[in-house]
Amino acid sequence: MLVSQRHASCFIPVTVILTVLLTLMGCSPENAHYQQPNGIIYCSEGNPASFNPQLDTSGTTVDVSSHQIYDRLLDFDLITGEIIPGLASSWITSTDGLTYTFQLRKNIIFHSTSYFAPTRTFDADDVIFSFNRWRDKNHPYHEVSGGRYPYINSVGLGDLISDIKRINRYRVEITLVRPESSFLANLATDFSIILSAEYADQLAKADTPELIDTHPIGTGPFKFNSFRQDRYVRFDAHPLYWRERSTTEQLIFDITPSSSLRLAKLMTGECDSMAFPTHSQLDIIRKRKELTLDEKPGLNVGFWAFNTTKAPFDNPEVRRALAMAIDKNALMEAIYFGSAIPATSIIPPSSWAFQPDTRSSTYNPLGAAKLLRENGVEEGFSMTIWAMPVERAYNPNAMKMAELMQRYLRDVGIDANIVSYEWSTFRARLNQGLHDSVLIGWSADNGDPDNFFRPLLTCSAIDSGTNRARWCSKEYDKLIDQALTYTNQEDRAYFYSKAIEMINDEMPLMPIAHAFRYQAYRDDLTGIEINPYGGIQFRNVSKP
């Protein structure tokens, strides 16, 4: 059974399709070049679910919003991973680790658009509004746009903060319930954006509070202009941006779900950069003299998650048997083409919490069939594999992977049906727990290993929608909480090693791969960098 509701982009000239076909046959015309509008055009893979990344963990939403429209109190250095100042110029931590005092920058100006003109600069009220919206259930904006804050809730950030105070206009004090070593890193993620309290007040008075997430206002390098579903998102440069930025006056996200058409637009110059080149396209890009392909090890994991709230997937023996039925080495060859490494756990080798001696599931179809029968799963049992309709670095072709897995499962007497929907529908139904299993993954939002352990498998992450296995273990949660009470990496690594052992014993998900991240763009584009900690950034990107 294949359910598919994927929409093709309406913004695709026939000449582009012809160019792809000619190129793949080695007959690309030398003079093929699309005359694009002024500004930078990025070929994106889908529609954003919102223009507020507080509300959605999808990379599509994060890419279009987090670093284009907004700023955060803190940022990450893309090279070192160090936490650096953002809208907060400095901060002080109390000796007991419970109180953080942030000094805010002055003269930071919010966007001025056709629907909002700020009368004051950024200050403490904006920080308090932005944080209280997701942490205070009685806040007037908490339930606006659904009241779901998936990343914030998955890491327990709202429950961690006991109070936030305005010391003066440019100083904010945040008090925690308990010390937590990942707190500052979470404030630097894509999701800890700062909104305009003045804009929120204006919308509340007009009885249109939902516009805060569809017609956004931030302090970022680009301001929202317009959005056409399945077509594009258009931004204009923020002329009074507080940091150095490129001279680019317009940024356009050209929504193109088809990866082959994204590549075609890149080759003809209709796009300057593209999202998620497939691994089969990498050699084509490398051979084009007008294109550049950047590569970095990825802080990510692709996995197969079992819905542990459904029988027989609530039985760890059944989950282990299903994992044993799959030849991961064959998946690596067929899907990743040498641009990923097999995963033995959810933690990638680049993390300090990685355990090199972690055992992984071994392909053993005879053993898998025997274990399934012993646990009451008879031949002919039917289950679903949900496959993402979009490409991601951690899984560039979930549909093909599902088809391969379907064959392996057939060998052990399992009838696997593949399910897919348009991306927003897929994620909405996944959040409802309608799946038996799903091929999906996770890209880190910061370099702290808690960014894998907590969002992917803690009990609180079930309601937030990031725990796709819907697995809840109080023992596991206790280990993760204990790790965060220490600042020393060796102390924390002990608890994480125990958590990894538990994951491998319980098998709520089967880790598959840690993939490299790629960024493809035309060689006249300068300043573009792969962000290992989240969404793409265009602040420093320029072209002639």
UniProtKB/TrEMBL annotation:
Residues 82-461 form the Solute-binding protein family domain. CDD domains: PBP2_DppA_like. Keywords: Signal. PROSITE patterns: PROKAR_LIPOPROTEIN. It comes from the Bacteria. InterPro entries: Peptide/Ni-bd, SBP_5, SBP_5_dom. Transmembrane segments: none annotated. Pfam families: SBP_bac_5. Belongs to the bacterial solute-binding protein 5 family. This is Peptide transport periplasmic protein sapA. It comes from Paraglaciecola agarilytica NO2.
